[in-house]
Amino acid sequence: MHELSIALSMIDEVLEQAKKHGGVQVTAVHVKVGAFSGVHKDALEFSYAAASEDSPLRGSRLVIEEVPIVVYCWQCHAERTLQSFQQLHCPRCNAPVHDIRQGQELEITALEVA
Predict the structure, then answer these.
(1) What is the mean pLDDT of residues 17-33?
(2) Which one of 2.40.10.240, 3.40.50.1820, 3.30.2320.80, 2.30.30.100 gives the CATH number of domain 2-113?
(3) Which of 42, 66, 73, 78 maximizes the CB count within 10 A of its CB?
């Protein structure tokens, strides 16, 4: 489960940022997770809860914003949202798509502090 290593890396980064800001108490960590990132939301939530248990982040919330896959269709000349990463074709004209504009994100976007 690579979500555990991701959660551990996130915790390290959050603790580093908290230290840079005077040791603030973090109550929530906001992240964006793209549908094409290969990260499973439930596994990340579980991993974060387990990994933060013995850290200063114990009891903090992980707030996940799921980001859909958005591609650019060269045939329609427009961005389209895909329903699944398994079908990389335009939902309107059925042309294959290669230009992924959104959905690969895996980033910390905000911290809530007390």
Answers:
(1) 95
(2) 3.30.2320.80
(3) 73
